[in-house]
Amino acid sequence: MDFELTASMMCADYGNLEKEVKELEEGGIDSFHIDIMDGRYVPNFAMSLNDMRYIASATQKPLDVHLMIEHPNNRIGLFLNNLRQGDTVYIHPEAEYHPSTTLQSIINAGMIPGIAINPGTSVETVMEMLRIVKKVLIMSVNPGNAGQMFLPYVGKKITKLLSIKEDMDFEIYWDGACSADKILEFAPKGVRGFVLGTTLLFGGGRPYGETMQAIRQLEF
Questions:
Q1: Quick one: which H or E segment has residue 164?
Q2: Are 88 and 63 in contact (CB under 8 A)?
Q3: Active-site entry in 13, 167, 175, 181
Q4: Which residue is catalytic, options 13, 35, 64, 181?
Q5: Greatest extent of the chain over all pairs of C-alpha atoms, in Å
Q6: Whether residue 150 has pLDDT greater than 70
Q7: What pTM value is reported for the model?
Q8: How many CB atoms lie within 10 A of CB 201?
Q9: CA 99, CA 27: separation in Å to the nearest integer?
Q10: Exposure pattern of 70-109 as b/e (b: 16+ CB <10 Å)?
Q11: Is residue 51 flagged as an active site residue?
Q12: Is the separation of the CB atoms in 8 and 197 below 8 Å?
């Protein structure tokens, strides 16, 4: 079964970041997920613009930049100027007065536009933006911290999005508490990619390549 795996780099070992990027690449990761937090939209700080720049310079794999910041349109140029065409930029619709303007800036720069949908955000409130974006990042946990528990009601939201994704031409990606059983359940239903963090990839003491090989060999 064809699905994408992306590494949540906020969970990586920052003392050995070059080694982490190399080992993830060699292990078969499809892309690198960069969580940018401002301490305002979410009550935490995570990766910085400089972290993103470094990872962009250390790999040719695509970057998925997840902006958990207030009013991203005010600073979107800082990120777009340090990314490559074909990288993905996700914004949270609630964080912007006019999110479609920010999405258009992402499109104009040659990036893939995406929105991230929090557990408490309904599909109905972002319906028009689904006609603009190419990727929808479903947060299965509240944003801001790694290692949280999966919120079961998010599954119904994913089912709703799966029913309209072909007509509206977007792909669905899973972020938060991603375990093997979630991939087994939702990849066959049409979820395109999964962000891997502490639940499945980081901190387990197992080589990244072995973990990813085991995931790709799951029996669906």
A1: helix 154-168
A2: yes
A3: 175
A4: 35
A5: 45
A6: no
A7: 0.94
A8: 25
A9: 36
A10: bbbbeebeebbebbeeebbbbbbbebbeebeebbebbeeb
A11: no
A12: yes
